[in-house]
Structure of ABM domain-containing protein:
Amino acid sequence: MTTPAKVGLFVPLVAKPPQTTTVKDFLISALPLVEAEPETLQWFAIQYTSRLSVSPTSTSESNSEPLTTHYLIFDTFAADSGRQAHLNGKVAAALMGNREALLVEGDEGVAIKPVEVLQHKVGKLGEGKKLVCGLRVLMTANKDKVEDVKQHLINVGTKLLDEANPPVWYGFWFPDTAQFGIIGLFTSEAEREERLAGQTAVAMRFNELGIFESPPEVIKVNVLASSTK
């Protein structure tokens, strides 16, 4: 049985334009180091561009925004001790040691954000399959709806445990804020499109429950590397 994930790290990265490929290669090469960390349960390296956004009224890609490559590390742990061990480990040291050379300045370049995992699903992939794409969703609860959003994500995640798609899903909260997020990962574009067209996803994008300040930001992402235990 998979050890339940309770906490995690949400780490967005933006490379300096000449260093985009270098950052991508670094993230892929970090996989063996992460797999050697006994307390890191799951680790994902993700890439996306601002042109792969999904508007509330459409699941098509938007070309109105400038093309900028972004990266994201999302990882999970059973307890804060594992999270701290990872932050003090080789991958974090290498990333921060090369921050000035590889990443743009300030929080735009790298921001290490602790999260509380509200519900998650890490299913077994079919033979010969791997995680290749996903959805990154960020949302802000109305001031009086923080607990409602927490419960909503728990309910959605619990329902997904009995469904085949998506194979990997996380609903999480940025503690002491009204900010929440979802990471859903898939083995094919068809799986992703099926999820986007589903009733739950459509209702969330249109904020039909009225629990968000505005429609959630939904971004299509590609998976560069992944480790699940």
Summary: The longest strand covers residues 217-228.
